[in-house]
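In the previous chapter we treated chains in isolation. Here, by contrast, the input contains three separate entities that must be folded as one system, with a combined length of 327 residues.
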Amino acid sequence: MPEGHTVHRIARQMTLDLVGCRLAVSSPQGRFAAGAARLDGRTMTSASAVGKQLFCTFDAGDVLRVHLGLYGAWDLHGDVSPLGAGQRARGSLGAPRVRSGAPTDARPSSRRLRMGEGETESTVPAGTAWPPPPIGQVRVRLDSGSVVADLRGPTACEVLTAAEAALVRERLGPDPQTVDDLDAAGEVVVDRVTRRNVAVGQLLMDQSVVAGIGNIYRAELLFRARLDPWTPGRQVPADLVRGIWRDWAVLLDDGIREGVMLTREDLDDAGREAARRDPTLRHWVYQRGGLPCLVCGTAVVVEEMATRKLYRCPACQVAPSGAAGGR
DNA sequence: AGCCTATGAGTAA
DNA sequence: TACTCCTAGGCTA
């Protein structure tokens, strides 16, 4: 899944390729037929992400809310814009590129971009049918005529009013990408962490504390902070929480730019290039259970925390001085 | 064919 | 804490 960076990339991709377009909306799988009918023929006016939630607003005010869950993904086909390094979503907002009802036999340039579990891009062989037949269980298809976006496997896909969407957003903790003031938002996170007796490893995964962190970023942020995930929030010094928040802002920004979660800051250019290709080189502790810690050589521990796998180095990651420990 | 796993989260008990 | 939902790929038999 899709942790926060993926969803921000999807929002940017949609801003480039779908916002401003009148869309044919359907549910090839059938399970979103009513919602699709409600949006069909509408123009998407914005696409944005908060944490792991995607909000697509349509001209009549309806909002499509999508949460990818563990294995959801979007597949984009057709004339898909490059979302390169450092690329910002350009404002096609308010500059409608209206195109709809393209001929069924048209062959727009042919890319296929899968955004969700990892990110893969492929070229579609010439002569492939257009629009492309749905692959797998497609909950919703958004078709601009030149780009088709297929959603499969989401944990949430629903049409909300603007007010209902605002309520969803209110329940989320700060997202470094969407807050006005990074430091002020950090204080909110400090507050929500240091008032609780719950393990800091669980609090970082709690989307109402801070938005967008998943199991990989959780493990890596705590390693980078050299903090024992089992430390109760109450016992984590405020400055340490501030540091984790700032680090999250950096990792999220990196992830959005690169399209890859690369959480090791020790790699040189060649090392980063290798890690981009090889997932086993990307992280300090995530999915490295039993392997030697890359800093001290101690075997990385895997254990369960609230049904999710937790990875940590038992030597590098310690409770803050004065903490009683929460194991 | 069946079983397991995965970057998630809501609800019930 | 347990169960439920969503999908696909990999492994085992």
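Residues 69-73, 117, 136-137, 139, 152-156, 306-307 of chain A lie near DNA strand C (CB under 10 Å from a C1'). The domain at 4-169 of chain A is CATH 3.20.190.10 (N-terminal domain of MutM-like DNA repair proteins). Compare these points with the single-chain example from earlier in the chapter.
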